[in-house]
Specification:
single chain, 289 residues, alpha+beta, Heat Shock Protein 90, five-stranded mixed sheet, two-stranded antiparallel sheet, elongated
Length: 289
C-alpha cells in the first residue's frame, strides 16, 4: 500500500513539475526576446543622444544669437535639463533591463528542461534561482512584513546531481517555510507580529565526501509527532485545499533515492525549523556500486 502511495505521489508531482517547468521556460523565452531587443538598442540610443547633445552645445557656442524661432524652441526645450536628465534615464533603463535579464536567467535555471539527467551543477546557482522565483512571496506586502534571507555559502565546487530535481527540493522547502510564516502572521498568539522573519541558508563540505545544505527558518516550529511524519506521503498539517502532502515526501525520495543522500528535519515548538540536506559528492559511484 505504501509503495502504491509513493508511486502515485511520484507520478502526480512529476507531472506537476514538468508542466511548471514548461510554463516557466516558455515565459522566460517570451520575455527574453523583447528584452534583448531593448537591451541591444540602449547603447546606440545613448550614443545618438550624446551626439545630438554635443551638436546642440556646439551650435549654442558658435551661434549665441539664433533666429527668434530657434531661440524660442531652445528655451522651451531646456537643453541643460535634458543634458543632465537623459543619461540618467538611459542608465535607469539599462539597470531595469539588466534586472529582467537576471530574472529570465533564473527562470531558465529553475526550469532546466534540458537537464533532467545527472550532471555537474552549481548548488548555489540553483538556490539563488529558486529564491528569485519566490521573491514576490518574500517581499513585504500589506499585512505581511516580509522575510529576510541570509546566505552563509561555503566554498563549494560543482556537485554531481539532478539539477532540476534538486531545485524542486529547494522550492518545496522554501515554500513550506513561507507558508509557516504566513500562518504565524494569521495567528499572533504563536508569535508577535514584530517578530523578525528569517530564513538562513548555509552550505559546506563535510568530510570531503558530502555537500551539506541547511535551510533554517525561525518560525513557530513544529511538534515532535509532526516531525516524525513529515516525510510520509500525503501527510499534511495544512487546511483542506491548501496542501497535498506530496511535497516533502517527494523531496525525501529525490534526496535519498535519486541522490543517495540524506534529508533530515529538526524542529520544536518555538524553536524554528531546519531542513538539512546531504548529497554525496560522487553520486554516480554510489549509483553504480
Amino acid at each position: 500500500m505504501l509503495e502504491l502511495q509513493q508511486t502515485q505521489a511520484k507520478l502526480i508531482q512529476s507531472e506537476k513539475m514538468s508542466s511548471l517547468g514548461q510554463v516557466v521556460a516558455g515565459v522566460a523565452h517570451e520575455i527574453n526576446n523583447p528584452v534583448n531587443f531593448i537591451y541591444g538598442n540602449l547603447t546606440p540610443a545613448g550614443e545618438y543622444a550624446n551626439n545630438l547633445l554635443e551638436l546642440a552645445n556646439i551650435y549654442e557656442q558658435h551661434y549665441p544669437n539664433p533666429l527668434p524661432i530657434v531661440k524660442q524652441k531652445l528655451q522651451s526645450l531646456d537643453l541643460d535639463l535634458i543634458g543632465e536628465d537623459l543619461p540618467k534615464i538611459l542608465t535607469s533603463m539599462k539597470t531595469g533591463t539588466d534586472r529582467i535579464r537576471d530574472i529570465v536567467k533564473s527562470l531558465r535555471t529553475f526550469s532546466r528542461l534540458d537537464e533532467a539527467e545527472m550532471k555537474l551543477a552549481d548548488i548555489h546557482e540553483g538556490i539563488d534561482s529558486t529564491l528569485m522565483m519566490l521573491q514576490n512571496r518574500l517581499n513585504p506586502k500589506p499585512g505581511f512584513p516580509g522575510i529576510e534571507v541570509i546566505k552563509n555559502y561555503g566554498n563549494l565546487l560543482k556537485v554531481e546531481c539532478y539539477p532540476r530535481q534538486s531545485n524542486q527540493v529547494f522550492i518545496n522547502i522554501f515554500n513550506n517555510a513561507i507558508d509557516a510564516f504566513e500562518e504565524d502572521e494569521r495567528n499572533p498568539q504563536t508569535f508577535s507580529k514584530n517578530h523578525l522573519k528569517l530564513i538562513r541558508i548555509s552550505t559546506r563540505i563535510v568530510d570531503k565526501k558530502w555537500v551539506e545544505i541547511g535551510i533554517f527558518d525561525n518560525g513557530s516550529g513544529i511538534s515532535e509527532d509532526v516531525v516524525e511524519q513529515i516525510f510520509n506521503p500525503f501527510f499534511t498539517t495544512k487546511p483542506v485545499g491548501k496542501g497535498t502532502g506530496l511535497g516533502l515526501s517527494i523531496c525525501y525520495q529525490i534526496i535519498t533515492e535519486r541522490h543517495k543522500g540524506e534529508l533530515e528535519c529538526i524542529s520544536a515548538p518555538g524553536q524554528g525549523t531546519e531542513f538539512i540536506i546531504k548529497i554525496p559528492i560522487g553520486v554516480k559511484e554510489l549509483l553504480n556500486s
